[in-house]
Structures are given as C-alpha cells and as structure tokens.
Write a structure and sequence with these properties.
Blueprint lengths: L10 H14 L2 H10 L4 H7 L3 H13 L3 H10 L4 H23 L5 H10 L9 H11 L3 H40 L3 H4 L5 H20 L5
Helix pairs in contact: 1-2, 1-4, 2-4, 4-5, 4-6, 5-6, 8-9, 9-11
Length: about 220
C-alpha cells in the first residue's frame, strides 16, 4: 500500500480522517490535520485527486474566510453529485458574505438573486443532472422544473418590491401624522386634497400590481 511521505497514513486513511472530522463539525481540528499533511509535490498530487480531502479543504477555507482558496478549489476540481449540495451552499454563502461586507448591510432576496446571476455556480457543481432527477421525481419536464425556479425568483423580487413600497407608504403616513400633531398640516396641505388622494390611489394600485405578479406560477 502506498504511504505518504512523513506520515503513517495511506491516502485512503487521510480521506477517512477528513470525512470523520468534517462530519463531526470540528473545523478547527480538521484544519490542523490538513496543515500537518506533507507538502511534497508527489504527495500533494495524490491528495488533490481525493474528493474527501478537497471537500475538507473547501470547508476549512470557507470557515476561515479564505474565499479565494475556496473558489479556486471549486472551480478547478470535479466533484460527484453527493458533494454538490454542500459545496454549492459554500459557494453561494461565500459570495453573499462578500457582497454584504462590500455593501455594509444584510442582503435581501433581490440582492441575493443578483449575486447568483453575477457569480453562477462553476461547472464542477453544475445542476443539469440534478434538474433531470428532480423532473423524474416530480413527473415534470426539465423545462418545467427550470420555469418553477424562475417563477420563484420572480415572486421573491415582487415580494421585495412590495415591501419597499409599503414602507414608503407607511413612512408617508407617519410624516402626515407628525405634521398634524405639530399643527403644520395647513403648510403641508390637507391630506384629503386631490393630489394626496391621487398619490394614495397610485400607491394602492402599485401594491395591487406587485401582489398580482407575486402570485404567478408555472
């Protein structure tokens, strides 16, 4: 059996340790174990062909905030479908965190959609096979499955737009209430004026439209 230099473990045993530590959630110990592995070119070549080791490296890179290393691993190595779900989540969450740090605020559904469009999953984690399997499980065609996810994204965007509009309407109502309390309603104009009435109707109409759009289905 081939032994790694400076270690009493075979590549299969190294993979087993990585899997055990990953499943236990002890990322700190997993990181220390990976750092203890040999760096000789021959040994690295053997380990970099092992999916369990690569997945463990990706997990450690994510949890230590080394997103550049995470992206490099996911973009340059192939993975079986058993690893896709977890690695897809790491890819997306890493990009979400980078976007949040850049913008200085939490991301909403529309923000996350834009991040996914800007940073699509690498080919190593592509989903055609998963889409076909989901289609078979649901009795739908792959196109219908794709349309369902497209409609879901549209509903998320519509819901976000509706929430923003409702906040604007509520904010406008608060301003009018404060004006009434301060006795400045005459300067702002009566709430029942034609302009205010038209504004309220326009806001209600816009909310109705977004509500209708958000209910679209396949």
């Amino acid at each position: 059996m081939f032994q790694l230099p400076m270690l009493n473990f075979s590549p299969q045993q190294v993979a087993g340790v990585c899997e055990t530590l990953e499943e236990s959630g002890d990322v700190e110990r997993l990181g220390r174990f990976l750092w203890s592995l040999p760096v000789a070119p021959a040994a690295c070549e053997v380990l970099n062909k092992n999916e369990s080791v690569l997945r463990a490296r990706a997990v450690v890179a994510f949890h230590t905030g080394n997103f550049r290393e995470l992206y490099h691993i996911l973009e340059n190595h192939k993975f079986t479908k058993e690893s896709h779900s977890k690695l897809q989540a790491l890819w997306l969450e890493a990009h979400y965190q980078e976007a949040e740090k850049l913008r200085g605020r939490p991301l909403g559904p529309v923000d996350k959609y834009r991040v996914r469009k800007k940073f699509p999953l690498p080919r190593s984690l592509s989903q055609p096979q998963q889409k076909r399997e989901l289609a078979q499980a649901t009795g739908l065609t792959p196109t219908q499955v794709g349309n369902w996810f497209k409609n879901r994204r549209q509903r998320d965007r519509a819901a976000a737009a509706k929430n923003r509009l409702q906040q604007q309407v509520l904010s406008g109502g608060s301003v009018r209430s404060l004006a009434d309390d301060d006795g400045t309603v005459d300067r702002l104009g009566p709430a029942s004026s034609p302009e205010a009435s038209l504004s309220s109707k326009a806001a209600a109409s816009a909310i109705s439209i977004t509500s209708s759009d958000s209910e679209c289905d396949i």
